[in-house]
Sequence to fold (261 residues):
Amino acid sequence: MPRLVSPPLDLPDFVPGSVWLVGAGPGDPGLLTALALHALANADVIVYDALVDRRVLALKHAAAALDYAGKRGGRPSAQQEDISLRLVRLAREGRRVLRLKGGDPFVFGRGGEEAIALKRAGVPFRVVPGITAAIGGLAYAGIPATHRDVNHSFAFVSGHGAGGSLPGEVDWQALSRAAPTIVVYMAMGHLADVAQRLIAAGRGSDEPAAIVSKATMPEQSVVETTLARAAADAASAQIEAPAMLVVGPAVKLRQGIRWFD
Ligand code: SAH
Fold:
């Protein structure tokens, strides 16, 4: 019989008229923080993204309203400016507003833009970090983000710029020299291009790579491949979003660590 622990955590009040910008983690509801659970239990309205797992939303207070602000490639989606304005308006109506995002709100999640808008509008807010996809997803995939034999640095990169193409300011040359382990978020649309840039920057075409899809969810899948074959293998495995690309020798350690699937 598991022991039920109810720690006497002294969590802050969710004050009406304020916004909590909260990371929901990569999927598994067990990876929510105590502050995130507290916010779900106390929010009046939850403005959430497409990446937030249904099982996480199910933990909300029964009376809390759900407000979808998702963005998904191809489908009509709320503009970032509209979302920030909506948060300000809901807070000014005196509600406890939970802005819930997948992973961590400040990692490729536009949380910074929303925080700036709230600050400018004079709306009180709090930022609650979450487990970002690369950290949570690698743990569940059995790929250590660092390992003494393999790397002393790693890099998290976005494979999707503002206009939908690869972000222009990423220095792939410097990146490939500096970080033995590279995790590329939002890379699936440009997988061949990303791999080609890394190879052009000096990484081996036979270097281990993995595509981790739906990490921490029951449908998690991991395709182990190489940099050169990544795009073709992702296509034939019919990888589903969300997914990220992991590059580097650490991928090989998975054989000895794999535990989740
Ligand atoms: N703020 C989020 C990232 C948002 S960008 C975070 O900190 O995790 C969206 C990208 O995150 C996706 O394209 C994918 O690359 C990655 N991602 C998010 N959740 C994921 C999951 N459960 N499995 C694999 N990749 C995920």
Observations:
- The first strand starts at residue 19 and ends at 23.
